[in-house]
Prior knowledge:
This protein is an alpha+beta fold and 322 residues long. It is 29% helix and 22% strand. The strands form 4 sheets. Strands 4-5-10-8-9 form a 5-stranded antiparallel beta sheet. It has a 4-stranded antiparallel beta sheet with strand order 11-12-13-14. The longest helix has 18 residues, at 303-320. The chain is globular and about 60 Å long.
Amino acid sequence: MNQFSYVNATTLKEATAALGSSWSDAAVLAGGTDILSLMKDYVVSPARLVNIKNIKELGGISKSGSGLRIGATVTFDELASNAMVRQMFPSLSQAVMGVTSPQIRNMGTVGGDLCQRPRCWYFRLGHGVLGQKDGKSLVAEGENKYHAIFPEGAAHFVSASSLGPALVALGARVKLVSAAGSREVDAGKFFVAPQSNLAREIALLPNEVLTEITIPAGGKNATYEVRQKDALDWPLATASVNLTMKGNTVSAASIVLGHVGPTPYHAAGAEKALIGKTITADLAMAVGDAAVQGAKPLSQNAYKIQLARVAVKRALLQAAGV
C-alpha cells in the first residue's frame, strides 16, 4: 500500500472539500471493506482517504413520503434489523440477508455496496476494469465462469453490488453531492458499463459523495439469489422483482437480474409477459425463460442461464405468495 494522507470529515462540506478532480486525488472511506483491499493490492492508490463515517447526516433510515430514505453510511446490519425495511421492501431485506459474513455486515455500508469495484480477478490483478492485456481481452478465452452472460460492449465483468438489483427494481434514486451542489440519479442509471479501462462502473464523479438512497413505495417485491456457498461468497445469479397488482392480476412489473452483467440487467421483455395475468408456477417459468433471451455466455459460464431462469421464477412466486 502506498502512502496517503487522511481526512476525518465530520461534515459533508469538509468531505467534499477534501475530494479532488480525479480518482487518484482522493477516495471516500466508509466501511473500508473494499477500498482498503484495493489499496493493499495496488489496484488503486489514492493520495488521500476521506473518512465519512462520522458525518451524522449520512446515517439513519427514515420515512420519506410513502417510501424510505436510507443514509449512505447505514451498515448492512442496520438495514437487516430495520422493521420498516423488512415490511416495505422484503426484496432489499432478502438481498441483505444473503451477505452472511458478520464482519462484512457489521462494517459494510449501503453506499459502499453500490460503489464497490468489480470482483473480476483480471481487474484485481491489475488488468483494468475491462480485463485487457496488450489491447486484447483476457476474459473471452480465459477463466470466465463467474463473468457476464449479458456483456455490454467490451465489459464482461459483473456488477458486484448486492443491493443494486433490488434498488433498480424498486425504482430507487441515489443522491450525489459535491462542493458545487447535488444531483439525483435513478438507480438504474447509476450503474454504467465502461468501455475504457480509465472509466468507472458508476455515475459517481471523483468530486462527489453518495449521501443517500430514496425508495418510493413498492408493490409486492422479492429477491432470490443462487449461490455456490452461503459464507463469504458472491451470488452466481440473482433476480429482484417488484409487482403492482390489481386484484390477483399483475398491472405493472419490474424484473432485474444481478451478477449476470456489468450492470443490473433489466429484463424488460420478460415483464411484458406478466401484464394482465395471474402468477402461477407455469407462468413464472415462462417469464424466467423470457428473462434470459438474448444471453451471450462465454466459454465457461453458460450454466448461469439456467440459474438466472430459476432465480426469476422463484422470485416471482415468492413476491406473489404462490
